[in-house]
Amino acid sequence: MTVLELDETRAAVIHAPRDLRIERRPLSPPGPGxxxxxxxAGGICGSDLHYYLHGGFGAVRLKQPMVLGHELSGTIxxxxxxxxxxxxxxxxxxxxxxxxxxxxxxxxxxxxQCLDMRFFGSAMRMPHVQGGFADAIVCTAAQAVxxxxxxxxxxxxxxxxxxxxxxxxxxxxxxxxxxxxxxGAGPIGLLLVIAARRAGAxxxxxxxxxxAPLKKAREVGADLAFNLVKEPEALAPYAAAKGQIDLAFEAxxxxxxxxxxxPVLRPQGVLVQIGQGGDVNLPIxxxxxxxxxxxxxxxxxxxxxxAVRFIAEGLVDVKPLLxxxxxxxxxxEAFDLAADKDRSVKVQLSFA
Length: 352
What we know:
- This protein is α/β, with parallel strands linked by helices and 352 residues long.
- The chain has 2 domains: 8-158 and 318-350, Quinone Oxidoreductase, Chain A, domain 1 (Alpha-Beta Complex), CATH 3.90.180; 163-296, NAD(P)-binding Rossmann-like Domain (Rossmann fold), CATH 3.40.50.720.
- 24% of the residues lie in helices and 29% in strands.
- It contains 10 helices and 20 strands.
- It has helices at residues 46-54, 104-107, 153-156, 159-172, 187-198, 211-219, 255-261, 284-289, 303-312, 331-339; strands at 8-16, 19-26, 34-43, 56-57, 60-61, 66-67, 71-79, 91-94, 97-98, 118-119, 136-140, 144-146, 179-183, 203-208, 224-227, 245-250, 265-273, 293-296, 322-327, 346-350.
- Helix 10 links the parallel strand 19 and strand 20.
């Protein structure tokens, strides 16, 4: 066992909407089966932005101060008793998901639906599960997934959102040779372009309401990209003959995007919903008449290690999505930049 020299860390703590503070927090040494990780890079996720801008999303609301952050990478700083497969100084991507492994859903092979889930930076339970936007954190050794030294820690911090997209691809079924529609060109939508292309999609069409992310969508592999504000009828040709789209990924959480996808899906087409938003009135007759399958996709589990491998082996390229890296001291500026979709795709914090 190596003892961590830090007994406290700086952390980005959300107290209320737009009340983000850099505070000192105590840090305990790792216990049995745990490691301490010095965080190097942390990506600002859409859920982090919801906490920052609105104090939560849907029924999930902040009830106490919480450290944000779950897209993390860093370096092993200390090993708890019994950890012998990791080494001090080793670079890792940190899996923020910690299912219990014992509830009926975990035992049924659905750990992402765990009844006692502890997910970094989440206000879904009380007390809230603290996140990883800090100089150092303690996690289970299983959550620290090694990455080669040749891979930048900024790239490694993309493992979590890429895992979300790989899980969505898993939920979709076979994509090989399919015509795919992706609605919403934020970080998840753009990573879906990369994941769908990796899975063998024949054609990828992306829609959004801003030009900047659509330009990025073309850069990472989309065949066509439409601004539906400027071209409201752009998808109309795909509605011919009961629909021309095999599969749609809805990544914006917008009710309008869901409703726009349904007419262009072919009979027995699949709509995978990843984006979270408010309630939507669905055209039930259309769903029934064309036998459309609507599937939710939530988080991930085995896909995290696959995401790490894809990044480590250069099977996907996430570098074009990194817009800026700002130090922890400029966290408020970083969050404001991340909220501006005309200026950024993915913004990360650094913890040097």
